[in-house]
């Protein structure tokens, strides 16, 4: 979403501070989600840190994730975890709540949800049992 004078999603929502708030809120919802919490470690500090770096880069900000961790290789990094359609839906629902809570405005809200939905679909690796 970067053409001439159009802002990136990252700058349009308010940069790193806003991304940090969204991710912290998101993981608050994850902690309460019975579908998601078994997929995550007890301490979400490092997980949230990596998510902030990734989403910053993913939405047009500095390439912080690559600088610290190398290429994202998302699917490969997520293969050890059983990501079912229910887990995908729960993840997207938590992210939606975080974006709404932090009043991410259009067109950024739609752009973020569309791109994260495509990515979440790609991460699925386990059918529902």
From TrEMBL:
GO MF annotations, alphabetized? heme binding; metal ion binding; oxygen binding; oxygen carrier activity
List cofactor names only: heme
The name on file for this protein is Group 2 truncated hemoglobin YjbI
Keyword terms: Heme, Iron, Metal-binding, Transport
Q: Which family does it belong to?
A: Belongs to the truncated hemoglobin family. Group II subfamily.
Database matches in InterPro entries:
GlbO/GLB3-like (IPR044203), Globin-like_sf (IPR009050), Globin/Proto (IPR012292), Globin_bac-like_CS (IPR019795), Hemoglobin_trunc (IPR001486)
């Amino acid at each position: 979403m970067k053409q001439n004078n159009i802002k990136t999603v990252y700058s349009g929502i308010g940069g790193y501070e806003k991304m940090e708030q969204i991710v912290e809120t998101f993981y608050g919802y994850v902690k309460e989600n019975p579908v998601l919490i078994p997929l995550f470690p007890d301490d979400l500090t490092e997980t949230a840190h990596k998510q902030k770096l990734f989403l910053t880069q993913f939405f047009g900000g500095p390439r912080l994730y690559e600088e610290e961790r190398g290429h994202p290789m998302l699917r490969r990094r997520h293969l050890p975890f059983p990501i079912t359609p229910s887990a995908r839906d729960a993840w997207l629902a938590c992210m939606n709540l975080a974006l709404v809570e932090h009043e991410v405005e259009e067109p950024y809200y739609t752009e973020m949800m569309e791109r994260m939905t495509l990515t979440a679909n790609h991460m699925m690796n386990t059918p529902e049992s």
